[in-house]
């Protein structure tokens, strides 16, 4: 049995689907009540990273875990809680979803500090491990859909900072490879798409795909903090987000790697591919 955490989210959903398609037994973890929609044949476990007893049930008879945490405020506690139960249950391996730039110093700050603590715990656990460090998800621009449908500009918090924007399906495909092939044990993969794109570049490509203008407006870090705080994001999460966007704005995420192509033996999907598959999200009325 392979346990997929974050199974209802952007990456986890694809991991569950791809594992099922390859005939692997899958257990999907969600906090939702039983009956939560998952593909047929998937074992669903109701569990919460904050409830150790529920994690114990989630890891029972599991040989590998896809570990994806998305705490509302940055903390490695969810990763650490799952690792504790996985070790006790003698789970064989863990594939940890982290983020590009994790642990890099940027001025007086550290990028992805909470992921770094979690990565360290994964590497020093007695489980076999693989760490995935993806670049910016193509799906982040789904946040723009309301503004685009309403004919309004979209916010650009990273200026001209280009990033190796990646299709979530490629991240999931690499995760599935790591969960099912021991050749990936002990590896840290930095996962990027095939081209460096700034937000204005993405806006241009999206506009071509959907056939209507997409205008981006630069939001400097100070205004970004205010915008995110007023959206209700917890202050610690705002701080971590603004460190990440300032780091990308300064050009530190101008990184392309061959890791997706090496693991999957095919090139990563382009942002345009992703936009074509999701064009419906950006058209129609708000
Ligand atoms: N967005 C990017 O560009 C980017 C780039 C690099 C790395 N990352 C990393 O990617 C991760 C986010 O991945 P994602 O976008 O796939 O996440 P997501 O779509 O936000 O989904 C996260 C899932 O986690 C589950 N969850 C949240 N709190 C939980 C809890 N207390 N107990 C159990 N489950 C919980 C939720 O499932 P239920 O509601 O069903 O319980 C949710 O579906 C983060 O670690 C982030 O740092 C993101």
TrEMBL record:
Pfam family of the protein (one):
NAD_binding_10
The NAD(P)-binding domain, residue ranges: 6-182
Q: Which organism is it from?
A: Actinoplanes campanulatus
Stored InterPro entries: Ergot_Alk_Oxidoreductase, NAD(P)-bd_dom, NAD(P)-bd_dom_sf
The name of this protein is Uncharacterized protein YbjT (DUF2867 family)
């Amino acid at each position: 049995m392979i346990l997929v955490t974050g199974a209802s989210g952007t990456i986890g959903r694809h991991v569950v689907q791809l594992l099922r398609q390859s005939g692997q037994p899958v257990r999907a973890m969600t906090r939702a009540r039983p009956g939560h929609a998952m593909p047929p044949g998937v074992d669903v476990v109701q569990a919460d990273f904050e409830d150790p007893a529920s994690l114990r049930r989630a890891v029972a008879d599991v040989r590998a875990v896809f570990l994806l945490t998305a705490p509302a405020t940055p903390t490695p506690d969810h990763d650490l809680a799952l690792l504790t139960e996985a070790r006790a249950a003698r789970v064989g391996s863990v594939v940890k979803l982290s983020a590009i730039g994790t642990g890099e110093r940027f001025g007086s700050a550290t990028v992805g500090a909470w992921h770094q603590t979690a990565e360290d715990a994964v590497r020093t656990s007695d489980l076999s491990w693989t760490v995935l460090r993806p670049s910016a998800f193509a799906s982040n621009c789904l946040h723009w859909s309301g503004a685009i449908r309403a004919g309004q500009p979209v916010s650009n918090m990273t200026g001209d900072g280009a990033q190796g924007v990646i299709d979530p399906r490629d991240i999931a495909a690499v995760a599935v490879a790591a969960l099912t092939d021991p050749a990936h044990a002990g590896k840290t993969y930095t996962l990027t798409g095939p081209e460096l794109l700034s937000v204005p570049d993405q806006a241009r490509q999206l506009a071509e795909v959907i056939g209507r203008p997409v205008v981006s407006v630069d939001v400097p870090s100070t205004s970004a903090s205010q915008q995110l705080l007023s959206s209700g994001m917890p202050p610690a999460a705002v701080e971590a987000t603004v460190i990440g966007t300032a780091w990308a704005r300064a050009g530190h995420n101008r990184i392309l790697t061959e890791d997706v192509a090496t693991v999957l033996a095919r090139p990563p999907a382009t942002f345009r591919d992703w936009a074509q598959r999701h064009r419906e999200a950006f058209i129609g009325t708000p």
